[in-house]
Automatic annotation (TrEMBL):
Record organism: Streptomyces parvus
Membrane topology reported for the UniProt record: Multi-pass membrane protein
BP-aspect Gene Ontology terms: ATP synthesis coupled electron transport
Main localization category: membrane
Name assigned to this protein: Na+/H+ antiporter subunit D
Compositionally biased intervals (Acidic residues): 452-464
Region described as Disordered: spans on this chain: 446-476
GO molecular function list: NADH dehydrogenase (ubiquinone) activity
Family: Belongs to the CPA3 antiporters (TC 2.A.63) subunit D family.
GO CC annotations, alphabetized: plasma membrane
Classification lineage: Bacteria, Bacillati, Actinomycetota, Actinomycetes, Kitasatosporales
Keyword Zinc: no
């Protein structure tokens, strides 16, 4: 069974080579490769999760080199669960992207780069969840960075290049900090293997331990978009194509949260900076959701809710109890699926109404009832309405806070309630503006091509709605083509509104909704599994003994 551990990384990398080889010549075969490989990765992830639950952690030393020389990959309950959820989500997003026609067939970009970049991203995410040493974790981050830049800048338009540049600059800064932390760790302890570090770190002085811990947390907080290190996110994600934004918002930020969970439990037990983490969690919750309240563009609104709800996960890490980690893991799994779903729905709304600007939308509940349902269910899930999985995760975290009984814990419990209520307000605002009210006079009709050379939100000119700075500046209605004459492209230059949304896009979005609902249906087994994962994280011994062969 241990031999299966590297496959979630190796399969996407091998498929990337095949995808690049075939390029645009055999596009159907290229799509088949991507779907087949991600389906296989999902099957492997489920297998590893079940095996880790029954047998304990699984590990493999690549090249049969023992630590600290070799590359170690480890699959335990937490990494198996993260692999399974991420594989399911990335598969759904891939199907969605195929329905949107995201195969990069424009003359300006003859090489089909979407599939290779997407597969590399999946490999990087899988490697992060399986990494057993800091260097391999750093390499995983860099793999994701390369793929992320390609996906963020698909089409090469000005807004996407600016957003991609911001993302790369922030990521390179975090990489530099990560490298310094790795160098300090190796200089002090002679290893970067996580299991060996867990045994050797207590021998260092408290000051050196705290410095290494602070540097690692800074890196992971940037990846997770934790306030105040989240300013880059609302300007980076919304400009990308809907499937790219969905997988980034739903999954990549949780990579940072996972790394925080792993290092705080394995390397730095004792919760020395729990109060600081809870203060950061509270700031992320409140400031993030207040930012969402102020938005009128759906994608930017969802980006701010993303920052806000990362605070719930940091709340659990700050408490550092079994109940808190169990609730945090539930919430991570829930948020991956729900946030991905909402961004996929935003893409459908843009295709149906020609924009994600809420002031220019309306009447979608009547015009597109299925689309309304696909938004309503995950929106209520995000707000934490019982008995959905969002409520289960929040309830677990708040119960852990009450059981802790400290002042910060009670403050976070109150902050969680306020954030949930404001999230409900935000989702209700989106529902009222985009779905419930009558369609405004300026809403695009079916078959209208909206072309934009610059979709930035900082212009002062008035657009078709007469409101400056709403993201519609420079947009002009071109014509009404015959049915099926045009499709949405990766170049961010044309969106064709349509009454009939592509079935693969609808099916993929419905699948993510169903996945999130399954966490409610199977809440008992899920919470039992996350509780066992939390116990395993806090015990540390099974992980260390498996890696070191004891």
């Amino acid at each position: 069974m241990n031999a299966l551990v590297p496959l979630p990384v190796l399969l996407p990398l091998c498929a990337t080579g095949l995808s690049l080889t075939f390029g645009t010549r055999l596009q159907r075969f290229q799509r088949f490769i991507s779907v087949a490989v991600l389906t296989a990765v999902l099957g492997l992830s489920v297998t590893l999760m079940i095996a880790a639950d029954r047998q304990g952690p699984l590990s493999v030393h690549l090249g049969d080199f023992a630590p600290p020389l070799g590359i170690t990959l480890v699959a335990d309950r937490l990494s198996g669960l993260m692999l399974t959820v991420s594989s399911a989500v990335t598969l759904c997003v891939l199907v969605y992207s195929l329905g949107q026609g995201m195969t990069d067939r424009d003359k300006e970009t003859p090489l089909a780069v979407f599939h290779p970049a997407y597969l590399i991203l999946v490999a990087g995410v899988s490697c992060t969840f399986l990494a057993g040493d800091l260097v391999n974790l750093f390499v995983s981050f860099e793999i994701m960075l390369v793929a992320s830049f390609v996906l963020l800048t698909l089409g090469g338009t000005g807004p996407r290049m600016r957003a991609g540049s911001t993302y790369v600059i922030i990521s390179l800064f975090s990489s530099m900090v990560f490298l310094i932390a790795i160098a300090m760790t190796y200089a002090a302890l002679g290893t970067v293997n996580l299991a060996q570090l867990a045994e050797r770190l207590p021998d260092l002085s408290l000051g050196v331990q705290t410095l290494i811990q602070a540097m690692l947390l800074t890196v992971f907080a940037i990846k997770a978009a934790v306030f105040p290190l989240a300013a880059w996110l609302p300007d980076s994600y919304p400009t990308a194509p809907a499937p790219v934004t969905a997988v980034f918002a739903g999954l990549l930020t949780k990579v940072g949260v996972y790394c925080m969970m792993r290092t705080e439990t394995l390397l730095f037990p004792g919760n020395r900076i729990g109060d600081l983490l809870m203060a950061v969690a509270l700031a992320s919750m409140v400031i993030g959701i207040l930012g969402a309240v102020a938005q009128t563009d759906l994608k930017r609104l969802l980006s701010f809710t993303l920052i806000s709800h990362i605070g719930f996960m940091i709340f659990g890490i700050g408490l550092a109890t079994r109940e808190a980690y169990g609730g945090a893991i539930v919430y991570v799994v829930h948020h991956i699926t729900v946030q991905t779903t909402l961004f996929l729905v935003a893409g459908l709304i843009e295709r149906r109404g020609g924009t994600t600007e809420l002031t220019r939308l309306g009447g979608l509940a009547k015009a597109a009832p299925i689309l309304a349902l696909l938004f309503f269910v995950p929106a209520m899930n995000l707000a934490g309405i019982p008995p959905l999985s969002g409520f289960i995760g929040k309830l677990g975290l708040m119960r852990a806070g009450v059981a802790d009984g400290s002042a910060w814990a009670w403050i976070l419990v109150a902050g969680s309630v306020v954030t949930s209520l404001l999230t409900l307000y935000v989702t209700a605002k989106v529902w009222n503006l985009a779905f419930w009210r009558a369609a405004p006079p300026g809403q695009a009709e079916s078959g209208t091509i909206l072309e934009s050379g610059d979709d930035s939100d900082d212009d002062t000119d008035e657009g078709p709605d007469g409101v400056p700075g709403t993201g519609d500046e420079g947009i002009a209605v071109l014509d009404r083509p015959s049915e099926g004459a045009a499709t949405a492209t990766l170049r961010a230059r044309a969106v064709t509104t349509t009454n009939r949304l592509p079935r693969p896009m609808m099916a993929a979005t419905a699948a993510t909704v169903a996945l999130a609902l399954s966490f409610t249906v199977f809440a008992g087994p899920l919470t039992a599994f996350t509780d066992r994962s939390a116990v395993e994280l806090l015990e540390r011994t099974p992980y260390i003994e498996e890696v070191l062969g004891r």
